[in-house]
Each structure stands twice: as structure tokens, then as C-alpha cells.
Amino acid sequence: MRVPDLHLEPLSASTAVAANRLTLKPGQEQYATPVSHVETESTISPSAAWPRVVLDGDEVVGFIKGSFDEHETRPEFRCCIWQINVKASAQGHGVGRFAVHGLADEARSRGFERLTVIWEPGEQGPEAFFLHIGFTPVGETAFGETIGALDL
Fold this sequence. Notes:
CATH class: Alpha Beta
CATH topology: Aminopeptidase
Helix content: 10-25%
Structural class: alpha+beta
Distance between the termini: 31 Å
Number of strands: 7
Radius of gyration: 15 Å
Number of helices: 4
């Protein structure tokens, strides 16, 4: 198996189309954006957003969007993973872990001590991934989604 040549880059006009075309595994689409994110997205400050693509060489294989806002009143949205998608054929090759570690490094550099993520429970959902890379369930949203945290 080839070792990926992964790096993160800010989302740009040249990578946005490829990021939007990332194809997930069948059944994963329903877990791509938790209900709580849809409900609160308009309240998150655009200046707090941190969108990045994961490239393997020059191919977009993943996308992660974080948010950093120390003034956010809801702790689960102060320093969080807002979205993560990994191309179906790249899943299981360290792309998601790489993206989360990159976002965690950025969070540490900004002085945050905890990174959160929200996921919907389900057989094909992202829970196993988040637990595997070290997130611990710390609560639940009003919609029944799991709030996970990773101490930095």
C-alpha cells in the first residue's frame, strides 16, 4: 500500500469544487451534517471558521471545517469540528486522522484546551472513527446527537 503524501491547505476557489465532489461511502451521506449544526450554522461567526482541504499530492481527498470562537456561549461550539468528509476510496488510510490532528494543532496554537465534535449515532455513522482517535462522549444535544471531546 502506498503511503499518502498528505497536507492541509486553506479552501480556495481551485479546491472548493473538488471538496464539494467528495464521494462518501454509501449510507454515510445522512451523517454528513448533524441536525444541531444545521440549526446553529447561521449563528457561528464566519471569521471563526477554519475550512481546509486534505490533499494527497495534488488530489483533494478530504475536507475539514473547524470553528474557533472563545466568545461562543455554547461550549460545544467554541473549538469544534464543524464538518469532516473523506473520499470513500481514501477512508481507512489516515486521511481523517490527519485532518483532525491538523485542526487540533491549530486549536492548541490558538490557546484552546479542548476540541469538540458532534455526531449522530448510527451504524454507518462516524462514532467509531471519533472514538478510535480519542474523542470521549461528554454529552448529548437536544436532537439526541453525541457531543464528543478531545482534551488537547
